[in-house]
Design brief:
The structure is a homodimer of 262-residue chains.
Chain A (H helix, E strand, L loop, with lengths): L12 E3 L9 E3 L2 H10 L7 E5 L6 E9 L4 E9 L8 E6 L4 H14 L3 E2 L2 E2 L11 H18 L6 E2 L3 E2 H9 L3 E5 L8 H11 L3 E6 L7 H9 L3 E3 L8 H16 L9
Parallel strand pairs in A: 1-3, 6-7, 6-12, 7-9, 8-10, 11-12, 11-13
Antiparallel strand pairs in A: 2-5, 3-4, 4-5
Helix pairs in contact in A: 2-3, 2-7
């Protein structure tokens, strides 16, 4: 383990997968080389910040070789960064039209989600399972948001699944909260008090599509053991509701401060 | 006062200023007439929901006369709606480029802000004070968001003001929270505990532009009595930070539930 040294924090931050981070060397992707050389106009000798999704710290990396298509650097030290939340919040947003879902992915990553599972529901305006290119696009958006927001990991954007399957999967992992605007019985606050009591390590959050969930879908969620929660007196657009809900859940559950991961 | 009657809630909801709501009659604007007749394709006899920004309930209005340019209706009863927050949260977001600020206005209204004051700051990419047309556009976005999210008022989008003026004004109204990503001393949670202790009725929230605030601006805020708060370990885009911050403030301060306005 490298010692933490007193280093200025470089401005630009990149994710490099662990297999490209050797003991002291970092191999950037061709796309990052283009970004470094042609967009940011950096040169050999300049420093950037790198995280690999595993280490508890960021690496300060000095660029050693740089062209438009290839770049590498060497690690000159490590630098502290904020810890990831101790609670893993898995978001299950209903699939939305292109631009809106891009926004949802970006904002969910910023606010601290652990992973994202797009959900196909009855009233989703988007019915077909997204193709590989669309998933790659979401994963790229997630990576950029993780780089910019100072995350320690790049949350996965997984394959879209039908609601029933998503519920079954979530129910096996911990507490499941299912936002439903018609709900009047269980406010989010009460649900989160229950979550705290159960010391859940994984919280799964379902937010519906523009038209909301069908009553049959809510019944399905209830049967799967989900807590049906109200987001409060104001009706939020679905692309607002997902990030706001995750932010409030982490605000409420990370009360003890952001301890380092156990 | 009309009695609350058992009525189905009409799907579409409109703001009509109080001067256009007579004792039993409602006069829609020309733009709303177009919306009712040509977009929603409603007809005389159909019902909509109307709020006027003053009454504690929504009116159920039956359309009596409708053309593409003029529409009126009569109130057939009143229907409950969620109360406005007891805490007035005034948002002071730094002015952003067109699309982003439109988004900020829309989402701030959804999550429950009382009014919005755009702020001109040193690093704002937008320097010039917005023209009247742009303000009208924001006010229209605020109205649409209020209609759709079930608000009881349409928050005002006020004239843009320089940061120093905004701080002076906010300091005269109650508690002022100034979000600053370099802040490490006062987490939002601690600031909100102080706010609860002071039983503030008005909370003013400042969120900076893309490049953040200049240290001189932060010093100005401190001198004006603002609490400089950290939004937590993750760095949020400014258009994410404003609505998330307001949502958390209302979540934290409206603990007693949404009591009716005093």
């Amino acid at each position: 383990v490298r010692n933490l040294v007193a280093l200025d924090s470089p401005k630009h931050r990149f994710f490099v997968p662990p297999e490209e981070v050797g003991d002291g060397d970092v191999q950037f992707s061709a796309q990052q080389a283009h970004q470094l050389a042609n967009v940011l106009r950096l040169a050999a000798g300049d420093r950037v910040r790198v995280f690999d999704g595993r280490a508890e710290t960021d690496h300060v990396v000095e660029i050693t070789r740089l062209s438009s298509t290839a770049a590498s650097g060497s690690i000159v030290g490590d630098i502290e960064r904020a810890a990831e939340p101790t609670t893993r919040v898995v978001a299950y947003p209903a699939l939305l039209a292109r631009d809106k879902f891009d926004q949802v992915v970006q904002k969910l990553v910023e606010v601290g989600v652990a992973s994202i599972v797009p959900v196909l529901s009855m009233r989703s305006l988007v019915r077909a399972s997204p193709n590989a290119r669309r998933r790659q696009r979401w994963q790229r958006i997630a990576q950029e948001a993780a780089e910019q927001s100072g995350r320690g990991i790049v949350p996965d954007v997984e394959e879209a699944v039908p609601l029933a399957l998503a519920l079954t999967r979530a129910a096996g992992c911990g507490v499941v909260l299912f936002a439903y605007e018609q709900e009047r019985e269980l406010p989010l606050r009460a649900a989160l008090a229950q979550v705290r009591g159960r010391r859940a390590r994984v919280v799964s959050l379902f937010v519906g599509p523009e038209g909301g969930y069908e009553p049959a879908e809510v019944a399905l969620a209830r049967a799967a053991g989900a807590s049906i929660v109200s987001l409060g007196p104001r009706i939020l657009r679905t692309e607002t509701a997902s990030p706001v809900l995750v932010a409030i859940v982490l605000y409420e559950l990370e009360r003890a401060g952001h301890a380092s991961r156990p």
